[in-house]
Amino acid sequence: ARVGDSIILTKGIAIEGTSILAREASDELREAGVSDGVIDTAKEFLFTPGISVARDAQIATGAANVHAMHDPTEGGVVGALLEFATGANLGLEIDASLLPILPESQIVCDALGLDPLGLIASGALLVTVTPEDVSTVITALADEGISATEIGRMTERESGLKMRTRDGVGDLPRFERDELARFFGSRD
């Protein structure tokens, strides 16, 4: 990744974590008022949209000169962004309003008191490209049925890891452990 690169995220965050929670905590979700329809849809996230990013990566690298890629798994999208910046020795700024959170993921996380930003996120792919290549990559992915969103940019290391919200720019949140592990640990 390079300073000034745009950061693209495919599909949405917390795909795998949402599916695991729907499969393993369906009783708690029902007790919290989540409908069977939402639970059933979330259970299938392992397959639709799916947790593989191989196609996403092939399409992105075929469309433009990709500088870096990373699949957010344990630690969620925030953990992956931290790894992304650390690996490149750079900073970054993300716009929270642009992070694609599937409705079922938000419902499941809200019902269980979890933050989707820190929930295992296999199924999404982070990609950095020059700002000029963003629309080319997003269009190529969309043409193959894969949603993608520009969520931020890489900055100088000294700028730190930042997230823009409606309240302004602050530090990227940190999670001591993946939200999935925190949830299952609290059940013991």
Provide keyphrases for this structure.
8 helices, 7 strands, 188 residues, 7-stranded mixed β-sheet, alpha+beta
Write the layout of secondary structure elements.
Layout: E1 6-10, H1 15-24, H2 26-31, H3 36-43, H4 54-63, E2 68-70, H5 76-88, E3 91-95, H6 103-112, E4 126-129, H7 134-143, E5 148-155, E6 161-165, E7 168-171, H8 179-186
Parallel strand pairs: 3-6
Antiparallel strand pairs: 1-4, 1-5, 2-4, 3-5, 6-7
Number of helices: 8
Class by helix and strand content?
alpha+beta
Topology order in helix (H) and strand (E) letters = EHHHHEHEHEHEEEH
Percent in helix: 25-40%
Radius of gyration: 16 Å
Through-space gap between termini: 41 Å
What do the pLDDT scores average to? 95
Major sheet attributes: 7 strands, mixed
Weakly predicted, low-confidence segments:
none
Gross morphology is: globular
The counted number of beta strands is 7
* Amount of beta strand: 15-25%
Strand order in the largest sheet: 2-4-1-5-3-6-7
Describe this structure in words.
It is globular, with a radius of gyration of 16 Å. Helix 1 crosses helix 3, helix 3 (36-43) crosses helix 6 (103-112) and helix 4 (54-63) packs across helix 7 (134-143). It is an alpha+beta fold. The chain has helices at residues 15-24, 26-31, 36-43, 54-63, 76-88, 103-112, 134-143, 179-186, and strands spanning 6-10, 68-70, 91-95, 126-129, 148-155, 161-165, 168-171. A hairpin with a 2-residue loop joins strand 6 (161-165) and strand 7 (168-171).
At a glance:
40% of the residues lie in helices and 18% in strands. With 188 residues, the chain is α+β, with helices and mostly antiparallel strands.
